[in-house]
Specification:
This protein is α+β, with helices and mostly antiparallel strands. It is 27% helix and 16% strand. The strands form two sheets. The chain has a four-stranded antiparallel sheet with strand order 3-6-1-7. It has a three-stranded antiparallel sheet with strand order 2-5-4.
Length: 246
């Protein structure tokens, strides 16, 4: 059957519509579909949702007076050397900068995941401690002096590279990437959504850049050799991490 009989157009109308018809190539292609991912090694816990985080730390003895603490800025500086890997080898949120997490930020993460994830096949776990460091503050309008102020709230210090939460289960990275990215944008420090593949890629990329760097005048070289009197000008933390961490 010709194209004219199928469309039932006269010859003069068919010649004008030929340019509007799609170009069809009758060529068969080889389909290469990836096999589905197997989740046989994943065990779902009894409680898949994130548990509630206390606003104030609980002390075993009620007679203990909550201690006041220093700022302890060292707990936010430098890289995280312990909790910087995924336990379940799937997905999570990683801090790319240091900072402090308050109770409201824990609730932003918990409520954001509670409404978005499919808990019948996914689960999430905390990878950070509940707020434990006391932050003091004086009332508005008070004069200087009079000792340290009263405890205002509690925070959890975070270092660069720390895994905040971890998501696992019968799911792929594309399902949770947008959810984790939106939550990480609401945190008080820089963070990003990561997977096991992206963490391995970043580690391999950093290693390759270090081995193939042709410029020998790196920040580490300049500080160690005290060029331009940098050992006196830079911060103390730069003597350890050479400008990599703020």
């Amino acid at each position: 059957m010709t194209l004219q009989k199928m469309l039932r157009f006269p010859t003069n109308q068919l010649s004008g519509c030929a340019a509007l018809l799609p170009q069809v190539n009758s060529v068969r292609g080889i389909k290469n579909f990836k096999p589905p991912i197997l989740y046989e090694h994943i065990q779902m816990p009894e409680r898949p949702k994130l548990h509630y985080i206390d606003r104030v730390p609980n002390y075993s003895n009620s007679q203990i007076r909550p201690p006041k603490m220093h700022k302890m800025l060292d707990l936010m500086r430098g890289p995280e050397t312990v909790h910087n890997k995924l336990i379940h080898k799937q997905y999570g949120i990683q801090a790319t900068g240091g900072g402090r997490m308050r109770f409201i930020h824990f609730e932003v993460i918990r409520m954001g995941l509670l409404r978005k994830l499919d808990w019948s096949r996914m689960f999430a776990i905390w990878r950070i401690d509940s707020p434990w460091q006391a932050v003091t503050k004086k009332g508005q309008g008070q004069r200087m002096g009079g000792g340290k102020g009263s405890i205002d709230h509690y925070i959890t210090p975070i270092r660069t590279g720390r895994i905040i939460i971890e998501i696992a289960g019968h799911c792929e990275y594309l399902e949770v990437k947008d959810i984790l990215s939106k939550i990480s944008a609401k945190l008080p420090f820089k963070a990003k959504a990561v997977s096991q593949e992206t963490l391995e890629w970043d580690a391999a990329k950093e290693k390759w850049q270090t081995e193939n760097n042709q410029n020998k005048y790196t920040m580490e070289y300049l500080i160690k050799n005290n060029m331009d009197d940098l050992q006196r000008k830079v911060k103390k933390i730069d003597h350890l991490y050479f400008g990599k961490y703020v």
